[in-house]
Each structure stands twice: as C-alpha cells, then as structure tokens.
Amino acid sequence: MQVLPGILIIGYGKHVENKILPAIQTLDIPIIGVVSSNKNVPKKITHYKSLKEINNIIRPSHVFIATNPSKHLNLIKEATRISKNLLVEKPITIQNP
Length: 97
Hints:
By secondary structure, the protein is α/β, with parallel strands linked by helices. Helices cover about 30% and strands about 25% of the residues. The radius of gyration is 13 Å and the shape is globular.
C-alpha cells in the first residue's frame, strides 16, 4: 500500500479544532483525515470512527495523537502499524500511582 503524504489526526476536541488544525493548515500540510468518535468533525475533513477502520485503506506518512493521555499508549501501539512517524501531545503517558 502506498504511503499518503500528510497527517492523520487521532482525536478531535476543542484543542484540535482551535489550535492544531489551524496550525497544520497554515503549514500547508495535507490533512488525510481525523479518527474520532466526535460527531463535530468538519464535513470537509474525512472522518474515521476507529484506527481499525483505516488499517487496510490508507497509510498516512504521519500520525498526530491528540487524545486523553490515558489513551496514548494503546493508540501509539496501534498507530505504529500504519505509520512510523508519530507526534503525540504531552504528556505521552500517565503513570498510575
């Protein structure tokens, strides 16, 4: 499967909507799509409900993980199956005491 140049965003909340998307668009980086259960993803952006849904469809060159930190570790493991170039919002993981 051919690698698509651009970024796949995992997670869609206010921070992605107000900060991340505008920054990516300013840099003219193609947005391949958004993986999120949020129904408010703009119609002009391809919306996927899960990483499993895209596993055999696309191979993004980059993946941006912008979810709750408690989900990061599992998403990192899943995302490395479709791309080796990951950007994860901080904190990368959280530790339970």
